[in-house]
Design a protein that fits this description.
The chain is globular, with a radius of gyration of 16 Å. α2 packs antiparallel against α6. The protein is built from six helices and five strands; from the N terminus they run βαβαβαβαβαα.
């Protein structure tokens, strides 16, 4: 049995890190799958997102991190991860997440016989999203409550690069 945690992680947040920590507590192997959709615009490349997740997990010193793998996947999750014993794990910040994720969970179950385990976000992380973090970064709001120091440094660098290209 393996837990599969898919997402775009653009950028990786403390909410994502908390979900990884909670998933590792099950004692099972965990694969974090960095999704990449060529139609979407990301701040970070898939490889940068993988590295930021690895750095953040290492920096947090999570128990069970030796059972964690991080990889990139383009396309439908069921095409690669629909194997006996695999279970998707998803965080839910609120009712809107549940509505969106329930539709996806039904699809994954019907098409790939891949079940989804939902974990409600802890209250302290329920307001954090990657989109909000990017907005706060652009407003130069301190990001430490929302992202790890590794991600904060990468966001600062990315914003500096973006400003150079626009000047």
């Amino acid at each position: 049995m393996r837990l599969i945690y898919p997402g775009s992680f653009d950028p990786f947040t403390r909410g994502h890190l908390d979900l990884i920590q909670r998933a590792l507590a099950f004692g099972l192997p965990l694969t974090v799958v960095v999704g990449h959709n060529p139609e979407k615009r990301y701040w970070f490349t898939p490889e940068e997102r993988v590295e930021l997740i690895r750095q953040s997990v290492a920096g947090a010193g999570l128990d069970g991190a030796d059972r964690l793998t991080v990889e990139v996947h383009e396309g439908l999750l069921v095409s690669k991860y629909a194997q006996p014993g695999n279970v998707l794990i998803k965080g839910l910040r609120g009712a809107r997440d549940l509505e969106d994720e329930a539709v996806q969970a039904r699809f994954n179950r019907e098409v790939g016989n891949l079940e989804t385990l939902f974990l409600p976000s802890q209250a302290s992380f329920s307001h954090i999203s990657s989109s909000i973090v990017k907005q706060l970064a652009q407003l130069e709001v301190p990001l430490a409550p929302y992202v790890t120091k590794e991600v904060e440094a990468a966001l600062t660098q990315k914003l500096a690069e973006r400003k150079e290209h626009h000047d």
